[in-house]
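Review form for a predicted model. The reviewer records the input and the model, then writes brief findings.
Reviewer: anonymous (R2)
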Amino acid sequence: MAERVGILVISYGSRGVCYADTLKRSENYDVELYIADRQRNPLNAKLAKEHRVIPDLSCEKIKKFASRYKDKIDFCLVGPEKPIIDGIRDILEKDLGIETICPTQEYALEKSKVMQREMLEKFCKEMNPRFKVFRKEDYSSLSEVKKDLWEFLDELNNEVAVKPDKPGYGKGVGVWGDHFSSREELWQHFLSIYQGDAVIVEEKIYGEESSFQCFCDGKHLVALPQTRDYKRAFDGDKGPNTGGMGCYKDKRDYLPFLSAKDRLNELKVVEKLFKKLRGKSSNPALRGIPFYVAFIHDATGLKILEINSRGGDPEIIPIVPLLQDDFVDVCFDMIDGSLRKIHLERKAGVLIYKVPPSYGNFEKIFPERVKKGEVGKPIDISKALEIQKKYGDNARIYPGSMEIRDDKKLYALSSRTVACVGFSDDIESSREIALELINGIKGGSLWYRKDIASKEHISKSIEHMRRLRCKDNE
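Model under review:
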């Protein structure tokens, strides 16, 4: 008889559902899930022994929920950013004795982009784009701010990205040439952030992006395959930044437009940061996924766009289901400090999100493409579930910003509604599975990016990197 293990999962969106589903599929343990969720997610509600909706994911409310079952909970796995930043691990471990898999509040690196830039300037300056921080307390008037900003724009020939200091989860970032083409437009974007936050203005880097993620037990890092995220809302990398419209990974550990050496270079950078933060031999406070790093590869090498202290949504989702090791054992290894290696199926993976018409300002920009009679109406995933059965473990449907209501029907909320993931021997076949699942989801006037992991988009990235490397050799 399998050993019973109780796991508290803190969930928001498809990432948390992916964690819960993978844990529940354990072959070595009888897993009981206690899920603290932002909404009544239909799959989480089905998987959980106890499912509690906590809309604000307040640490105190999560603690109250966990305290009722603390004698049955062996550990906690945290998905979303907010509880990590708010110190959920510190609270659960100190007050309830529940070992928690995520960094402590001190090492929640994504709580401040300014802190990240200053850390990188100290530890690996060569990876840092030029930047300038604008804090309200440093200026007595907006005219002074504008003067300093204009001088920095002169220095960089306007080629900048404007970001809020606090996490926006991909949103709130404005880029010259993409979101604005004049200084006055840039200034208006700057002010929209500056009213409530410090603003960081960074040099715009031209290159190709990759996402680096790793598991960590406080002593060792175990690198995961590179993924490519699609932040922009619309095809052709147009429109506003989002939390991520989809992503892909190759059968190999590196992306088609990069090389094994590029991935090794990323690992070297992250290990350097890890050793600085870890100290001599071990720092259990870094347990979990302390480094999810958005890299950009340009003509000169590597730059770091940002660092997060949790698995990416969507980037971690096409990886975790490919674990050949039992995910429960991987979690125990992270807690025990005995994580040395993991094994993954050698498959490509493609994830595509289907989202509501309000997401990414789609309904305002493309009103003619919105099916007015469907908005706010139930979502039907029955056809997609039939398709999933056809492909078995190579097809996954992870509800995200979706809830099941008292009428037993599914409804889209305001963010990314549902993630469809396909796995196969190559990216193209994986994409076909994901698209088949996507097209099996009906209702709600949901939409999606049609060029995620397409041959054309990947070919452009390959050609762009070729040109950048040629430029570097000139």
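Findings: The longest strand covers residues 3-11.
Further findings: DSSP finds 14 helices and 23 strands in the chain.
Recommendation: see findings above.
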